[in-house]
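Changelog-adjacent note: as of this version, every example in the card shows the full chain rather than a window. The one below runs 127 residues end to end.
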Amino acid sequence: MIPNDRRYVESHEWAKLDGDIVAVGLTDFAVKHLSDLVFIDLPEVGDRLNKGDRFGEIESVKAVEELFAPVGGEVVEVNEGLADNLDRVANNPYEDGWMIKLKVASAGEYEQLLDDAAYQKVTEAEE
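Full-length structure tokens:
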């Protein structure tokens, strides 16, 4: 099930807006395709990202996937606990598995992202 309280990008990151802060993570669809997660690399607080910029990577026993910013902004928080506990991404990617929080540079970028129904079509096309 794809939560309807956030937006998505075709590269399988989600974004959830709260005021001018966007939490970013990897969708359940992507996590299931990666399977056994072994490593994550995330940016530093204070890093500035543009929409579509690579902000890190996540590695499984099967593949390494780059992570991309769904919106532009400044990294204001990083989920430091993920490096030692990737089960949080695997078991609860939409809550405990968030990766970074960005102070949004442009609220309009968030509105342009895919809603849950549009993202569902993306996942169906890839299965």
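Structural remarks: Residues 4 and 35 are 24 Å apart (CA to CA).
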